[in-house]
Amino acid sequence: MGAHGQFIPKASTRHRIACRALYRALLKPCGNIPLPVNTITQTTTTTRSTVNPIKNFIRKRFHRNLKVLSPHLIRKGLKIGYLAEHLLRTAAQGVPTAIGQVHTVLNTIASEAETARRAYTQPECKSHQRLRVWPFPGAQKITETRPLPLEKISSGRRHVPSLVLTSGGFPFLRFKKHQSPYLSRVIRDRVIQKQKMLDQTDFLQETEKIARTEDTWENMVLSEIDRSVKGGVEEGGEEKWWTEGWGKGLGDNEQSWTVSILEAKNKVNLAVEADRARAKLYGEKLLKIREEEKRLCQIEGEERKIRKRQDRLERRQKKRSGVEKMDPAF
């Protein structure tokens, strides 16, 4: 909000009406002004559609000065606008001097745009294609190797993994950060595969409505043929019309549209249920591994405490025996 007494152009009705009138007056004679040949060819080749360069220049100038609040700049812009309106109006009337001035301005604008276009360097497009990550050769499954013996753990101390469930319902064990790129790729592929099956289910759900409508239409046509006087196709009735006409080539085991869609939905639903069952079975295996890792971690923790206690007692005994040797009166 402006200060008290400050002129705000968009809040002044008279100013808005004057600017709109000037804008329309500038655009009105543009179609009657002959354009230079080089400007026409350049406009046609550089843009998808032929745009009058004079109208384009006027629109850009008005859009650039849309948020100007300075009274000095507003007065200057209106003065230039009225002079330009007089020039365009006289050029539209066929005055050679005015037409030459308009052509000079257009050529200057075109040359400046071409210079700026050549000076602009397009940045090199970097490909962000993700490389496919494959497992190490001969790598064993985690359900076959875990839990590892304490001797094979590089840190020398066992940590209980976290059992994580992705948004797609795929369970996995997170042993440490950072996550393996191969594991990320497997999770991403499983999520995409699950989403495709769900999208297919939604598509078949919508298609089932169309199939029911198609079956209704075919039943209506067959019933009309059956009720006809001559039986439809050369008195052959519904059966001949279906086998030799519309249904020709389908065979004896043809199915309705709805039945075909329901069979496809059943296949997709079975695939989804099978995927859920595999994920559940795999999650149970991972849960057993986590519980075993937790049990071993507790046992090894108790063993470390016992060893620390024994080491502490041994150090105390050595210290006490050293004091006895140093003090013969003891």
Question: What's a concise summary of this model?
Answer:
It is built from nine helices and two strands. The protein has 330 residues and is an all-alpha fold.
Describe this structure in words.
The protein is built from 9 helices and 2 strands; from the N terminus they run ααααααββααα. By secondary structure, it is mostly helical. Among the domains are: 9-115, no CATH class; 200-321. Residues 307-330 are annotated as: Disordered. This is Putative dna repair protein. Residues 321-330 have a biased composition (Basic and acidic residues).
Average pLDDT confidence is: 79
pLDDT < 50 runs, ≥5 residues: 248-253
Q: Largest sheet, described in full? A: 2 strands, antiparallel
Output the number of helix runs: 9
**Order of the strands making up the biggest sheet:** 1-2
> Ends: how far apart?
94 Å
- The helix content is 55-70%
In N-to-C order, the SSE pattern is HHHHHHEEHHH
Broad shape: flat
Question: How large is the share of residues in beta strands?
Answer: under 5%
Radius of gyration of CA atoms, rounded to a whole number = 42 Å
Number of strands: 2
Structural class call reads mainly alpha
Task: Jot down its keywords.
330 residues; mainly alpha; 9 helices; 65% helix
